[in-house]
Amino acid sequence: MDMKQLAAEYRASGEACRSRAAFLERELRHRRKEGRISALETMRLRRRIGMLRGMARDCAGTAAYLENYYRGGPSFEQYI
To answer: Domain range holding 55?
Structure first.
């Protein structure tokens, strides 16, 4: 596996995290609209959504870093 393939896998993982976070956001809105979610469940879902967003951001940054690894470009922190 080369760096481009690894970067593609990171991008796919990031997209899966973004997709799951979007699904949970829709679920949260739907359950709140119907009034069938407790404050504790709301807090837990929001935390989970936040974690997924962070994971998606990290995956995108890692993918960008790997795509440019051999160019000797900027450090990893600049991609996040």
So the answer is: 3-79
- Nearest CA to 28 out of 52, 17, 44, 16 is that of 44
Token pair of 62 as six digits: 């890692």
Higher pLDDT, 25 or 75: 25
Chain centre distance of CA 1: 23
Residues 77 and 80: their CA atoms lie apart, in Å, by 6
Tell me how many domains the chain contains. 1
pTM metric for this prediction: 0.82
Diameter of the chain by CA atoms? 53
